[in-house]
Amino acid sequence: MIALNRRKALILGGAAAASALAAPAIAQNKTIKVGALRFTSHSGSFVAVEKGYFADSGLDVELVFFEAAQPMAVAIASGDIDYAVTAISGGLISLAQKGAIKVIGGAASEEDGIDGQIILASDAAYQAGVTDCSKLDGKSWGLTQTGSSFHYVGAKIAEKEGISLSYKPLQKVGAVIGALKSGQIDAWNIVPHIAKPLIASGAVHDIGRVQTYLPGYQLTTVFTSTKNASEEKETTQAFLNAFSKGAHDYNAAMIDAEGGDAAVDAMIDMIHKYVYADQPREKAAPSIVNGTMRINEGAALNVASVEDQLEWFKSEGLVDASVSMGDLVDASYVETIG
Protein backbone atom coordinates (compact mmCIF):
# COMPACT_ATOMS: atom_id res chain seq x y z
CA MET A 1 0.00 0.00 0.00
CA ILE A 2 1.27 3.48 -0.86
CA ALA A 3 1.55 5.72 2.19
CA LEU A 4 -0.17 9.09 1.92
CA ASN A 5 0.43 12.11 4.05
CA ARG A 6 -2.65 13.55 5.71
CA ARG A 7 -3.11 16.44 3.28
CA LYS A 8 -2.92 14.15 0.19
CA ALA A 9 -5.19 11.60 1.79
CA LEU A 10 -7.81 14.23 2.50
CA ILE A 11 -7.66 15.55 -1.06
CA LEU A 12 -7.87 12.11 -2.65
CA GLY A 13 -10.49 10.97 -0.19
CA GLY A 14 -12.49 14.11 -0.77
CA ALA A 15 -12.38 13.65 -4.52
CA ALA A 16 -13.57 10.06 -4.28
CA ALA A 17 -16.30 10.95 -1.82
CA ALA A 18 -17.42 13.91 -3.90
CA SER A 19 -17.75 11.60 -6.89
CA ALA A 20 -19.83 9.14 -4.90
CA LEU A 21 -21.95 11.86 -3.37
CA ALA A 22 -22.55 13.48 -6.74
CA ALA A 23 -24.94 10.69 -7.73
CA PRO A 24 -28.57 11.88 -7.92
CA ALA A 25 -30.11 12.04 -4.48
CA ILE A 26 -33.31 14.07 -4.52
CA ALA A 27 -35.02 14.12 -1.17
CA GLN A 28 -38.22 15.77 -2.49
CA ASN A 29 -38.08 18.95 -0.39
CA LYS A 30 -37.84 16.99 2.82
CA THR A 31 -37.65 19.04 6.03
CA ILE A 32 -34.79 18.10 8.34
CA LYS A 33 -33.26 19.58 11.48
CA VAL A 34 -29.48 19.89 11.66
CA GLY A 35 -27.64 20.34 14.96
CA ALA A 36 -24.65 22.64 15.28
CA LEU A 37 -22.55 24.72 17.63
CA ARG A 38 -21.91 28.39 16.92
CA PHE A 39 -18.32 27.60 16.00
CA THR A 40 -16.49 28.49 12.79
CA SER A 41 -15.59 24.80 12.51
CA HIS A 42 -19.27 24.07 11.80
CA SER A 43 -19.23 26.26 8.69
CA GLY A 44 -19.88 23.41 6.27
CA SER A 45 -23.51 23.43 7.35
CA PHE A 46 -23.75 27.22 7.45
CA VAL A 47 -22.37 27.63 3.93
CA ALA A 48 -24.60 24.86 2.58
CA VAL A 49 -27.63 26.72 3.95
CA GLU A 50 -26.53 30.12 2.69
CA LYS A 51 -25.53 28.95 -0.80
CA GLY A 52 -28.63 26.84 -1.25
CA TYR A 53 -26.81 23.52 -1.45
CA PHE A 54 -29.27 21.85 0.93
CA ALA A 55 -32.20 23.25 -1.04
CA ASP A 56 -30.64 22.07 -4.31
CA SER A 57 -30.41 18.59 -2.80
CA GLY A 58 -34.11 18.62 -1.95
CA LEU A 59 -33.69 19.45 1.73
CA ASP A 60 -35.42 22.16 3.72
CA VAL A 61 -32.98 22.60 6.62
CA GLU A 62 -33.63 24.10 10.04
CA LEU A 63 -30.43 24.66 12.04
CA VAL A 64 -30.77 23.87 15.75
CA PHE A 65 -28.03 25.21 18.02
CA PHE A 66 -26.56 23.56 21.10
CA GLU A 67 -23.97 24.53 23.72
CA ALA A 68 -22.26 21.14 24.11
CA ALA A 69 -21.76 17.88 22.22
CA GLN A 70 -23.55 15.35 24.41
CA PRO A 71 -26.99 17.02 24.34
CA MET A 72 -26.75 16.98 20.55
CA ALA A 73 -26.19 13.22 20.59
CA VAL A 74 -29.25 12.78 22.80
CA ALA A 75 -31.29 14.93 20.41
CA ILE A 76 -30.28 12.71 17.46
CA ALA A 77 -31.23 9.58 19.37
CA SER A 78 -34.62 11.01 20.35
CA GLY A 79 -35.39 12.22 16.83
CA ASP A 80 -35.49 15.89 17.85
CA ILE A 81 -32.84 16.57 15.19
CA ASP A 82 -31.88 14.53 12.14
CA TYR A 83 -28.20 15.22 11.42
CA ALA A 84 -25.45 16.96 13.35
CA VAL A 85 -21.81 17.91 13.46
CA THR A 86 -20.00 17.64 16.75
CA ALA A 87 -17.17 15.98 18.64
CA ILE A 88 -17.29 12.37 19.74
CA SER A 89 -18.34 12.05 23.37
CA GLY A 90 -18.97 9.20 25.77
CA GLY A 91 -22.68 9.85 25.52
CA LEU A 92 -22.58 9.58 21.73
CA ILE A 93 -20.67 6.29 21.89
CA SER A 94 -23.08 4.80 24.42
CA LEU A 95 -26.05 5.75 22.26
CA ALA A 96 -24.30 4.22 19.25
CA GLN A 97 -23.86 0.95 21.13
CA LYS A 98 -27.60 0.96 21.84
CA GLY A 99 -28.24 1.19 18.11
CA ALA A 100 -29.43 4.80 18.13
CA ILE A 101 -26.60 6.73 16.42
CA LYS A 102 -24.04 6.33 13.63
CA VAL A 103 -21.06 8.49 12.70
CA ILE A 104 -21.25 8.85 8.91
CA GLY A 105 -18.48 11.33 8.06
CA GLY A 106 -15.74 13.67 9.19
CA ALA A 107 -15.85 17.41 9.70
CA ALA A 108 -13.12 19.58 11.28
CA SER A 109 -9.71 18.07 11.87
CA GLU A 110 -6.31 19.12 13.13
CA GLU A 111 -3.86 19.70 10.30
CA ASP A 112 -0.19 20.57 10.46
CA GLY A 113 0.43 24.17 9.44
CA ILE A 114 -3.08 25.38 10.29
CA ASP A 115 -3.87 26.75 13.73
CA GLY A 116 -6.18 24.31 15.45
CA GLN A 117 -7.28 24.00 19.04
CA ILE A 118 -5.19 25.99 21.48
CA ILE A 119 -4.33 24.93 25.01
CA LEU A 120 -5.01 27.77 27.43
CA ALA A 121 -3.95 28.51 30.99
CA SER A 122 -5.67 30.97 33.30
CA ASP A 123 -3.70 34.09 34.14
CA ALA A 124 -3.44 32.96 37.76
CA ALA A 125 -2.00 29.58 36.74
CA TYR A 126 0.34 31.17 34.20
CA GLN A 127 1.69 33.64 36.72
CA ALA A 128 2.24 30.72 39.10
CA GLY A 129 4.46 29.01 36.54
CA VAL A 130 2.14 27.06 34.23
CA THR A 131 3.81 28.29 31.05
CA ASP A 132 3.60 25.03 29.11
CA CYS A 133 1.73 21.74 29.39
CA SER A 134 4.50 19.99 31.28
CA LYS A 135 3.75 22.30 34.22
CA LEU A 136 0.11 21.19 34.52
CA ASP A 137 0.67 18.33 36.97
CA GLY A 138 -2.07 18.38 39.61
CA LYS A 139 -3.86 21.31 37.97
CA SER A 140 -7.53 21.55 37.06
CA TRP A 141 -8.75 21.09 33.48
CA GLY A 142 -12.08 22.46 32.26
CA LEU A 143 -14.73 20.25 30.66
CA THR A 144 -18.28 20.68 29.51
CA GLN A 145 -19.18 17.16 30.65
CA THR A 146 -17.25 14.14 31.87
CA GLY A 147 -16.68 12.06 28.76
CA SER A 148 -16.60 15.06 26.42
CA SER A 149 -13.94 15.70 23.78
CA PHE A 150 -12.29 18.13 26.23
CA HIS A 151 -11.89 15.20 28.63
CA TYR A 152 -10.27 13.08 25.91
CA VAL A 153 -7.86 15.84 24.87
CA GLY A 154 -6.86 16.66 28.45
CA ALA A 155 -6.20 13.00 29.19
CA LYS A 156 -4.09 12.57 26.06
CA ILE A 157 -2.00 15.61 26.99
CA ALA A 158 -1.58 14.29 30.54
CA GLU A 159 -0.55 10.87 29.22
CA LYS A 160 2.11 12.26 26.91
CA GLU A 161 3.45 14.67 29.54
CA GLY A 162 3.41 12.04 32.30
CA ILE A 163 1.27 14.21 34.57
CA SER A 164 -2.14 14.06 36.25
CA LEU A 165 -5.03 16.48 35.88
CA SER A 166 -8.13 17.23 37.92
CA TYR A 167 -11.17 17.43 35.61
CA LYS A 168 -13.91 19.98 36.27
CA PRO A 169 -17.19 19.51 34.34
CA LEU A 170 -19.04 22.82 33.96
CA GLN A 171 -21.75 21.85 31.43
CA LYS A 172 -21.44 24.72 28.94
CA VAL A 173 -18.63 26.31 26.95
CA GLY A 174 -19.56 29.74 28.33
CA ALA A 175 -19.24 28.47 31.89
CA VAL A 176 -15.80 27.02 31.15
CA ILE A 177 -14.66 30.34 29.69
CA GLY A 178 -15.87 32.19 32.78
CA ALA A 179 -14.13 29.75 35.10
CA LEU A 180 -10.86 30.01 33.17
CA LYS A 181 -10.91 33.81 33.11
CA SER A 182 -11.60 33.98 36.83
CA GLY A 183 -8.99 31.39 37.73
CA GLN A 184 -11.47 28.82 39.04
CA ILE A 185 -9.87 26.31 36.64
CA ASP A 186 -6.28 26.25 35.48
CA ALA A 187 -6.43 25.10 31.86
CA TRP A 188 -8.59 24.13 28.91
CA ASN A 189 -8.45 23.46 25.15
CA ILE A 190 -10.70 25.18 22.62
CA VAL A 191 -10.99 26.08 18.93
CA PRO A 192 -8.98 29.11 17.79
CA HIS A 193 -11.86 31.52 17.15
CA ILE A 194 -12.63 31.39 20.88
CA ALA A 195 -9.06 30.99 22.12
CA LYS A 196 -7.36 33.85 20.29
CA PRO A 197 -9.61 36.70 21.51
CA LEU A 198 -9.25 35.39 25.07
CA ILE A 199 -5.47 35.39 24.68
CA ALA A 200 -5.53 38.92 23.23
CA SER A 201 -7.53 40.14 26.22
CA GLY A 202 -4.75 39.04 28.58
CA ALA A 203 -7.18 37.02 30.68
CA VAL A 204 -5.64 33.70 29.59
CA HIS A 205 -2.42 32.48 28.00
CA ASP A 206 -1.43 30.19 25.12
CA ILE A 207 0.58 27.23 26.45
CA GLY A 208 0.42 24.84 23.52
CA ARG A 209 -1.40 23.27 20.57
CA VAL A 210 -3.58 20.19 20.57
CA GLN A 211 -2.10 19.04 17.25
CA THR A 212 1.27 18.63 19.02
CA TYR A 213 -0.30 15.88 21.11
CA LEU A 214 -2.93 14.60 18.67
CA PRO A 215 -1.77 15.06 15.07
CA GLY A 216 -4.60 14.46 12.62
CA TYR A 217 -7.20 14.51 15.41
CA GLN A 218 -10.73 14.15 14.00
CA LEU A 219 -12.15 16.94 16.11
CA THR A 220 -15.71 16.79 14.84
CA THR A 221 -17.74 14.20 12.96
CA VAL A 222 -20.99 14.13 11.01
CA PHE A 223 -23.54 11.81 12.56
CA THR A 224 -27.18 10.80 12.38
CA SER A 225 -29.60 8.24 13.75
CA THR A 226 -29.04 4.60 12.87
CA LYS A 227 -32.48 4.66 11.27
CA ASN A 228 -31.51 7.50 8.95
CA ALA A 229 -28.20 5.83 8.07
CA SER A 230 -29.80 2.48 7.27
CA GLU A 231 -33.28 3.38 6.03
CA GLU A 232 -33.10 6.96 4.75
CA LYS A 233 -30.12 6.55 2.46
CA GLU A 234 -31.33 8.99 -0.17
CA THR A 235 -31.84 11.74 2.40
CA THR A 236 -28.56 10.96 4.13
CA GLN A 237 -26.65 11.04 0.85
CA ALA A 238 -28.35 14.32 -0.06
CA PHE A 239 -27.36 15.82 3.29
CA LEU A 240 -23.73 14.75 2.94
CA ASN A 241 -23.61 15.96 -0.65
CA ALA A 242 -24.72 19.45 0.34
CA PHE A 243 -22.57 19.56 3.48
CA SER A 244 -19.53 18.53 1.43
CA LYS A 245 -20.11 21.35 -1.05
CA GLY A 246 -20.33 23.83 1.81
CA ALA A 247 -17.13 22.48 3.33
CA HIS A 248 -15.34 22.67 -0.03
CA ASP A 249 -16.29 26.33 -0.52
CA TYR A 250 -15.24 27.16 3.03
CA ASN A 251 -11.83 25.52 2.60
CA ALA A 252 -11.31 27.13 -0.81
CA ALA A 253 -11.94 30.63 0.53
CA MET A 254 -10.53 30.51 4.04
CA ILE A 255 -7.61 28.08 3.81
CA ASP A 256 -6.58 27.70 0.18
CA ALA A 257 -7.21 31.39 -0.63
CA GLU A 258 -8.55 30.55 -4.07
CA GLY A 259 -10.68 33.67 -4.38
CA GLY A 260 -8.44 36.19 -2.64
CA ASP A 261 -9.67 38.79 -0.17
CA ALA A 262 -13.07 39.11 -1.86
CA ALA A 263 -13.84 35.44 -1.27
CA VAL A 264 -12.72 35.67 2.36
CA ASP A 265 -14.93 38.70 2.92
CA ALA A 266 -17.93 36.97 1.36
CA MET A 267 -17.35 33.90 3.50
CA ILE A 268 -17.08 36.00 6.66
CA ASP A 269 -20.41 37.61 5.81
CA MET A 270 -22.07 34.20 5.58
CA ILE A 271 -20.51 32.77 8.74
CA HIS A 272 -21.20 35.92 10.75
CA LYS A 273 -24.92 35.16 10.57
CA TYR A 274 -24.22 32.18 12.85
CA VAL A 275 -20.94 32.86 14.67
CA TYR A 276 -20.59 36.01 16.81
CA ALA A 277 -23.88 37.17 15.32
CA ASP A 278 -24.42 39.40 18.36
CA GLN A 279 -21.30 41.41 17.51
CA PRO A 280 -20.76 43.99 14.76
CA ARG A 281 -19.25 42.50 11.63
CA GLU A 282 -15.99 44.43 12.02
CA LYS A 283 -15.50 43.03 15.52
CA ALA A 284 -16.53 39.50 14.63
CA ALA A 285 -14.46 39.19 11.44
CA PRO A 286 -11.00 38.70 13.06
CA SER A 287 -12.35 35.97 15.33
CA ILE A 288 -14.00 34.20 12.40
CA VAL A 289 -10.72 34.29 10.48
CA ASN A 290 -8.84 33.10 13.57
CA GLY A 291 -11.15 30.11 13.77
CA THR A 292 -10.22 28.72 10.39
CA MET A 293 -9.71 24.94 10.49
CA ARG A 294 -9.93 22.62 7.53
CA ILE A 295 -13.19 20.72 7.16
CA ASN A 296 -12.51 17.34 5.59
CA GLU A 297 -13.14 17.38 1.84
CA GLY A 298 -16.00 15.10 0.91
CA ALA A 299 -16.64 14.61 4.66
CA ALA A 300 -13.81 12.05 4.61
CA LEU A 301 -13.49 10.34 7.99
CA ASN A 302 -10.20 9.71 9.81
CA VAL A 303 -11.09 6.30 11.20
CA ALA A 304 -7.73 5.90 12.95
CA SER A 305 -8.45 8.99 15.04
CA VAL A 306 -12.01 7.87 15.74
CA GLU A 307 -10.77 4.44 16.83
CA ASP A 308 -8.21 6.01 19.16
CA GLN A 309 -10.96 8.07 20.75
CA LEU A 310 -13.18 5.02 21.14
CA GLU A 311 -10.39 3.00 22.74
CA TRP A 312 -9.66 5.79 25.22
CA PHE A 313 -13.30 6.04 26.29
CA LYS A 314 -13.34 2.27 26.78
CA SER A 315 -10.08 2.25 28.73
CA GLU A 316 -11.42 4.90 31.11
CA GLY A 317 -14.62 2.98 31.77
CA LEU A 318 -16.67 5.85 30.31
CA VAL A 319 -18.36 3.50 27.81
CA ASP A 320 -18.94 -0.25 27.73
CA ALA A 321 -15.83 -2.26 26.93
CA SER A 322 -17.66 -4.28 24.27
CA VAL A 323 -18.63 -1.34 22.01
CA SER A 324 -17.01 -1.65 18.56
CA MET A 325 -16.18 0.58 15.62
CA GLY A 326 -19.02 -1.16 13.79
CA ASP A 327 -21.41 0.03 16.49
CA LEU A 328 -20.15 3.60 16.17
CA VAL A 329 -19.38 4.13 12.47
CA ASP A 330 -21.24 3.55 9.21
CA ALA A 331 -18.39 3.87 6.73
CA SER A 332 -20.51 3.34 3.63
CA TYR A 333 -21.13 6.99 2.77
CA VAL A 334 -17.69 8.64 2.62
CA GLU A 335 -14.06 7.88 1.97
CA THR A 336 -12.14 6.78 5.06
CA ILE A 337 -8.52 7.65 5.84
CA GLY A 338 -6.05 6.70 8.51
TrEMBL record:
Identification of the protein by name: ABC transporter substrate-binding protein
Q: Enumerate the spans annotated as SsuA/THI5-like domain.
A: 40-249
> Where does the protein end up?
Periplasm
Known SUPFAM superfamilies for this protein? Periplasmic binding protein-like II
Signal peptide per UniProt: 1-27
Q: Show the GO cellular component annotation of the record.
A: periplasmic space
Q: Which family does it belong to?
A: Belongs to the bacterial solute-binding protein SsuA/TauA family.
